[in-house]
Write a structure and sequence with these properties.
Elements: H1 7-19, E1 29-30, H2 50-57, H3 61-70, E2 74-76, E3 81-88, E4 91-98, E5 107-113, H4 116-119, H5 122-137
């Protein structure tokens, strides 16, 4: 099971259960760089595996959507395909996919609801973002 390999996510769940706030999502999406301390998402060991996701699904939109819905996600209208996943309640993560074509290589992007940094510290936001990405990359 994927969760057994991810002790950091267990700690994130505990942090959320103790400190999570009853704040409604705004529906306004932001990139990791737009949250407090979000520059950690772009360097070192905190870089999210978006390139791997794009490589895996960049020519297969249907598999991307199917895997996301198998994980309990909801399709979104963003990019060529997108899925909204809830690794924790009130913490949606939206992953968008731009398919590979003759002009551009495949690309995956990740977005949070604008309230994510009110709910969680940045390092836990990273952990919460990593979990659905790894689940999308794992075998079903």
């Amino acid at each position: 099971m994927l969760l057994k390999k991810l002790d950091f996510f267990r700690l994130s769940i505990l942090w959320y259960l103790v400190n999570g706030k009853n704040i409604d999502c705004t529906g306004r999406l932001v990139t990791p760089r737009n949250i407090k301390g979000g520059d950690i998402f772009a360097r070192g060991s905190h870089v999210l595996p978006l390139d791997q996701l794009a490589a895996r699904y960049g020519k297969d939109k249907e598999s991307f959507i199917r895997r996301g819905t198998d994980l309990g996600g909801e399709p979104e209208k963003l990019g060529d395909a997108a899925i909204r996943l809830y690794p924790l309640p009130r913490i949606p993560v939206v992953v968008s996919l731009w398919l590979d074509d003759e002009e551009f290589p495949a690309r995956a992007d990740l977005f949070f609801d604008s309230t994510c940094d009110l709910q969680l510290p940045t390092d836990i936001v990273w952990s919460v973002a990593l979990m659905p990405l790894l689940a999308m990359l794992s075998e079903s």
